[in-house]
């Protein structure tokens, strides 16, 4: 039995003697059965690979051969370097925006400590989750006209800018030079964690500003997101 191969679009089919009418083919295909192998190409995206504009973070340089004297010397150099950096907060602060109902403020990075029970004044028991907000700084503010022109922007973000927030300071020896350069504008040590928050222009924050739990007030509604 002679078999023939036919390809239409992204569908590869093997056909043999029989009449088969399909919208995939312009003419009638003679086949007794059709075996298809779908090869999806358009729209494929590898989620395990970082985007092209992503900066490499970890370095592969090891300090195992350094003596303890050399390690202490490097720590002292790093300490003096960041102590002498001109902080943007030494300049005139940015004007404070006026809040309205459409204002969207930046968030912070926190560590989940666990859960515990609390009771209201009327004796009602409730379960709460504890988060620790530690060592947060504003790394960069991107105004809307620049953020909308960046790669990956969507029409929904056209009225928003972006605030990049970092948490958990670390020594520059743990990261690559390209990653360390991201923190020069803010004048803070490199951070282990970085994230981006969409904000309205009246909620812009100057790079280098520290963020703590005092960023919120009692009675505020907070959206918490985390990986399970």
From TrEMBL:
GO cellular component: mitochondrial large ribosomal subunit
GO molecular function list: structural constituent of ribosome
InterPro entries noted in UniProt: Ribosomal_uL3_bac/org-type, Transl_B-barrel_sf
UniProt record, GO biological process: translation
Signal peptide start-end: none
Keywords, alphabetical: Ribonucleoprotein, Ribosomal protein
PANTHER family xrefs: 50S RIBOSOMAL PROTEIN L3 (PTHR11229), LARGE RIBOSOMAL SUBUNIT PROTEIN UL3M (PTHR11229:SF8)
Protein name: Large ribosomal subunit protein uL3m
Organism expressing this protein natively: Mizuhopecten yessoensis
């Amino acid at each position: 039995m002679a078999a023939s191969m036919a390809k239409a679009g992204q569908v590869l089919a093997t056909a043999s003697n029989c009449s088969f009418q399909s919208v995939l083919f312009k003419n009638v295909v003679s086949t007794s059965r059709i075996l298809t192998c779908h090869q999806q190409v358009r729209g494929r995206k590898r989620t395990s690979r970082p985007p092209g504009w992503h900066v490499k973070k970890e370095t592969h340089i090891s300090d195992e051969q350094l003596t303890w004297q050399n390690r202490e010397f490097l720590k002292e150099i790093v300490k003096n370097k960041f102590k002498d950096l001109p902080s943007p907060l030494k300049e005139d602060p940015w004007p404070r925006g006026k809040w309205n109902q459409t204002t969207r403020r930046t968030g912070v990075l926190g560590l989940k400590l666990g859960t515990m029970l609390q009771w209201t004044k009327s004796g009602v028991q409730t379960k709460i989750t504890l988060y620790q907000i530690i060592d947060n700084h504003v790394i960069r503010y991107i105004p809307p006209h620049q953020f909308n022109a960046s790669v990956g922007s969507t029409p929904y973000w056209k009225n928003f800018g972006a605030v990049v927030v970092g948490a958990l300071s670390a020594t520059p020896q743990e990261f690559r030079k390209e990653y360390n350069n991201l923190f020069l504008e803010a004048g803070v040590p490199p951070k282990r964690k970085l994230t981006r928050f969409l904000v309205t222009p009246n909620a812009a924050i100057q790079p280098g500003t520290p963020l703590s739990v005092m960023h919120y007030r009692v009675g505020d509604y907070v959206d918490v997101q985390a990986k399970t």
